[in-house]
């Protein structure tokens, strides 16, 4: 009888662990940009721009540009052209 309870408990622990691991994937709890570029990208190529502010999972600001070609590029937020472009975008809003 004890072995069946132990087996049941072990089964429940495995099920709970796999559900927990699927919900809280450690891969999603980190910075999105592994590599950044400072190379200029012309605004006519942008499909979208996403700015992620520092938080508990990533300590740096990330600027992610999706190009019309569907390529995703992370740019250096400290690059002069990026700062200038962001200023222009904020003024246009």
UniProtKB/TrEMBL annotation:
Its main location: secreted. Residues 1-21 form the signal peptide. GO terms for molecular function: chemokine activity. The keyword Translocase does not apply. Residues 28-89 form the Chemokine interleukin-8-like domain. Keywords: Cytokine, Secreted, Signal. Pfam families: IL8. It comes from the Eukaryota. The keyword Signal applies. GO terms for biological process: defense response; immune response. It is found in: Secreted. Gene3D superfamilies: 2.40.50.40. GO terms for cellular component: extracellular space. Coiled coil: none annotated. CDD domains: Chemokine_CXC (cd00273). Belongs to the intercrine alpha (chemokine CxC) family. This is C-X-C motif chemokine 13-like. It comes from Eublepharis macularius (Leopard gecko).
